[in-house]
Amino acid sequence: QNILLDPATGKVVLGSSDWIETASGYQIGKTGTQVLKEMAPIMGFDLPVRTATSGTVTISRTIESYPFSSCAAGTSRVHKLVIRYGSMGTTTWEIATSGGPVATFTVPATNSTASGTVYTYQVTIPTPTGSCTGWSQGTDTDDWWVRISPSSNDTMIYQIFLAAYDQIL
Fold it and tell me: In 20, 71, 74, 115, which residue has its Cα 20 to 30 A from 55's Cα atom?
């Protein structure tokens, strides 16, 4: 476990499994830590949307290119949907392309549609090829969107955001 202090560059370099910790326990640079870098609204409507259909409904806009800047060196990119919703029952959500679903997950019931509850889910989305350090905003990817299947339950979606986190390696 080496610590390199380089006064010429101002760098402090730690071993691969080391991190800096404050007296109150806050960990800086610990492997697996996720740092929020950017968020983008992706809901396909300007106002909240309600659905009670038994079919599958697209609720986001179509994402035609990668919406975020590159990840930092020494990190990988993690994506999460941040959903504010109300639902009388569980709802199946999916990330889909013209080829079909890329990722599917279930969002629990809130038992009310009168106000929004926040639910965050780590999800796989179409991304540019290669390392995330080379990705950039506007890089072409497969077009994709978010769909829901409310299982005949009354569901109200207030907001949907796509979040990009850098996860420390």
Answer: 115
